Amino acid sequence: MARLELQLYDYNEWANGQIFNRIKELPKDVYRKEIQSVFSSISRVLAHVYLSDLGWIEVFSGKDMEHALMLQEQLKEETESKELEEMEAMFLKLSERYKLLFSQLEDSDKPLVIKNPNGDLMETSVFEQVPHVVNHGTYHRGNITAMLRQLGYASVPTDYGLYQYLKQYQLI
Question: How far is it, in rounded angstroms, from Cα 22 to Cα 56?
């Protein structure tokens, strides 16, 4: 059986795909529609999740947190301007980076010391932080679900239990 962290990351990739597929089914303006919510548009939620995931892989690859935060700030406006299909392609490319990193780690775990912006050090590892990346994505997929409902549309199920069921019966 694969590491739980890798299974969780596969789930995260599947759930993101579910969201992208649902948004593509809706009128094109839904992606950028301004609404009163946690984020001002679905496009901004997806940009935030992408930039956060990008920041974490930078940290996992040996860069410091300050570098990751600067990179996120530098790319924020450009990322927020991407159309849905471009954003989906960026997510897929980033997932490939994650999978390559995970394959290089195999069953070992890369020690990680993260210097937080306040100066504190946190000793952890790459695989210990994967659930954080997945949980962050899950949280914001929930934001998107709420935003879709505000706009008058149903979302799509992205529950981990559903993912496990579909995997077990080879439906995905």
Answer: 26
At 100-110, the pLDDT tens digits run 999 998 777 88
Confidence (pTM): 0.95
Q: Which CATH architecture has domain 4-105+115-165?
A: Up-down Bundle (1.20)
- Is 48 annotated in a binding site? The answer is yes
Pairing type for strands 121-125 and 111-115 reads antiparallel
Place of tokens 């210097």: 115
140 annotated ligand binder: yes
- Rounded Cα distance between 61 and 53, Å, is 12
Cα distance between residue 57 and residue 75, in whole Å: 15
At 81, is the secondary structure helix, strand, or coil?
Answer: coil
Q: In what helix (H) or strand (E) does residue 111 lie, and over which residues does it extend?
A: strand 111-115
Q: In this prediction, what percent of the chain has a pLDDT beyond 90?
A: 91
Report domain extents, the chain: 4-105+115-165
Q: Could you tell me where the DSSP H helices lie in the chain?
A: 4-25, 42-60, 65-80, 84-105, 126-150, 160-168
For residue 143, give the nearest of 43, 54, 27 by alpha carbon: 43
Interhelix angle 4-25/42-60, rounded to 10 degrees, is 160
Contact indicator for 147, 155 with CB cutoff of 8 Å: no
**Size of the chain, expressed as the number of residues it contains:** 172
